[in-house]
Amino acid sequence: MQTQFCFRKILVQCLKMGPTSPRLEKALHLSIAVSEILSHGHTSKKSVTPIDRIEVDSIPSEVERLNRFQDFFMRLPIEERLLLVLKDKHQVNEDELSLIFRQPLASLHTRRSQTLDLLRKWIFEDLP
């Protein structure tokens, strides 16, 4: 139900904006979607409990830990997950990301790099 509410709200905001340049349209729509997701504090249905975290942290093999990537990924704040998904999975270009997150490119590069470093540390360096 929350998803439908958010979709309606995004649609209404897009209709209020009227016509936009095709170059900016995708970024504006994604910006509205990201704002809605963050404002409603959407979290995944799968939350990481302390017991899950201990279980995943105790896995000794890098390969097994990599197979549980989603468990590590879900530990990240929602903003960082959105940035990685938009940039690395959906290949949203950097100019659009800058508009979506309302941050300069240098700041986004730093955030993405720090987030990837943190994931790398959790998966490959913090072995038991």
pLDDT averaged residue by residue = 82
The helix/strand series, from N terminus to C terminus, equals HHHHHHHH
Given helix and strand content, the structural type is mainly alpha
The main β sheet shows up as:
none
State the CATH class of the largest domain.
Answer: Mainly Alpha
Q: What would you say the CATH architecture of the largest domain is?
A: Orthogonal Bundle
**Helix percent band:** over 70%
Which residues sit in consecutive blocks of at least 5 with pLDDT less than 50? none
> How would you sum up the global shape?
elongated
Count of helical segments? 8
**Distance linking N and C termini:** 41 Å
According to DSSP, the number of beta strands is 0
Strand proportion, as a percent range, falls in: under 5%
Q: What is the name of the CATH topology of the largest domain?
A: Arc Repressor Mutant, subunit A
The total number of structural domains is: 2
As a whole number of angstroms, the C-alpha radius of gyration is 17 Å
What features would you describe in this structure?
The chain is mainly alpha-helical. It has two domains: 1-42; 47-128, Arc Repressor Mutant, subunit A. Helix content is 73%, strand content 0%. It has helices at residues 2-17, 22-39, 50-57, 62-67, 69-73, 78-89, 94-101, 105-125. Helix 1 (2-17) runs antiparallel to helix 2. The mean pLDDT is 82.
